[in-house]
């Protein structure tokens, strides 16, 4: 994979391999959260938003990433229907229950989120 600049959404990288992945667990760390799938994980350090099909939402940012723990736990066992880059915003996952998870990009210049694409070498760092 080509070198990337943190904070820039790499829209040229296909996310097709994320579709169909079941969320096995969520890890809550002091300064990050991880969504764990078979064969890969998404580590978020800057922030995220979760929206449900009922219209409720939760957002968490730097230093407060555990704020959405209940909403994160509700995603466990769901399958990714699609993954898409949202220009200048981040990575959006749409789930089998029609909810969405958006890993947001920080303007700080530090790492916002990272993951490995199943079956692909290297790690995508944004």
Number of β-strand runs: 10
Gross geometry:
globular
Q: What is the ordering of alpha helices and beta strands? A: EEEEEHEEEEE
| Total number of helices | 1
For the largest beta sheet, what order do the strands appear in spatially?
1-2-3-9-10
Q: Assign a percent range to the helix content.
A: under 10%
Q: What about the largest sheet?
A: 5 strands, antiparallel
* Average pLDDT taken over every residue: 88
Q: Which structural class fits the helix and strand makeup?
A: mainly beta
Rg over C-alpha atoms, rounded to the nearest angstrom: 13 Å
Low-confidence stretches: none
Question: How far is the N terminus from the C terminus?
Answer: 13 Å
Q: Which percent band covers the strand fraction?
A: 35-45%
Architecture overview:
It is a single chain. With 126 residues, this protein is mainly beta. Helices cover 4% and strands 39% of the residues. Strands 1-2-3-9-10 form a 5-stranded antiparallel sheet. A 5-stranded antiparallel sheet has the order 5-4-8-7-6, with no helix packed on it. Strand 4 and strand 5 form a beta hairpin.
